[in-house]
TrEMBL record:
It comes from Yoonia tamlensis. Pfam families: DUF3307 (PF11750). It comes from the Bacteria. The chain crosses the membrane at residues 39-69, 81-106, 170-193, 205-228. This is DUF3307 domain-containing protein. Keywords: Membrane, Transmembrane, Transmembrane helix.
Length: 245
């Protein structure tokens, strides 16, 4: 099951955050754009698993339903962090459901017959890195949208976005390397570098909210990836640090 889940998660991240352009996101309410995206979802899942199966078509159909629901939410309500989290949460649930109902998708594919056991783990770790950095950027951006008035005006163009991606990437690497305690040093370093923002309440609150949101996203994604990776290796799902012998 976990090999299938890792491959499906890798395909999902590629389809949503690598192969989906900004133009596609902006015009996703158009049928042609949406169907193109669903076609990419279907093809990336086939390639990641190395097999054809009707469960992959079901997954693509579920992805279509979730995206349609999100489009309606945005149209009649607003494009907020809640819409984004609900969308991604629904996608992750569908991935887990398909992997649970069809756990042999990976083992029936050509990659399982031709590659070693590390292939699903490599897919998982790569997908986790993209999900922690790029997907986290969208999440934090939507959360911080209503507070844009408090954003520092003297920052480098896209500087905050780059800092966020780097810090989430570092947190992810620390968890994967088994060094989660290093996150404390990262918090301390950023606090020192952002000390000047404390002189302005609006700037300070903006930086604090954005930093905490960024850290929370990276930690949550890291824990998710570690849990799936533990499943791949037969370890307890909630074990963060490897046990010493």
């Amino acid at each position: 099951m976990f090999e299938t889940l890792a491959a499906l998660f890798f395909a999902h991240v590629l389809a949503d955050y690598v192969l989906q352009t900004e133009k596609m996101v902006a015009t996703k309410d158009r049928p042609l754009t949406l169907l193109t995206h669903i076609g990419i979802v279907y093809l990336t899942a086939i390639i990641a698993l190395g097999s054809f199966d009707w469960w992959i078509a079901i997954l693509a159909g579920l992805h279509l339903i979730v995206d349609l629901a999100k489009s309606l939410w945005i149209k009649y309500r607003s494009d907020t962090i809640m819409a984004y989290l609900a969308d991604q949460g629904a996608h992750l649930v569908t991935l887990a459901a398909v992997a649970g109902f069809a756990p042999a998708l990976w083992h029936n594919g050509i990659w399982a017959m031709q590659t070693t056991a590390w292939a699903p783990e490599c897919m998982l770790l790569a997908a986790g890195a993209i999900y922690a950095t790029r997907a986290g950027g969208f999440a934090v951006g939507k959360l911080m949208g209503p507070y844009a008035a408090g954003a520092p005006s003297d920052s480098l163009p896209a500087g905050g976005m780059m800092i966020g991606q780097l810090e989430r990437g570092l947190i992810y690497l620390m968890f994967i390397a088994g060094l989660p305690a290093g996150i404390g040093f990262l918090i301390a370093a950023k606090s020192i570098l952002r000390f000047d923002a404390a002189s302005n309440n609006a700037k300070a609150e903006y930086v604090i909210i954005g930093t905490l949101a960024s850290f929370c996203w990276a930690i949550a994604v890291s824990l998710l990836i570690l849990a799936i990776n533990n499943g791949l290796n037969g370890a307890p799902l909630l074990e963060i640090m490897p046990r010493s012998n």
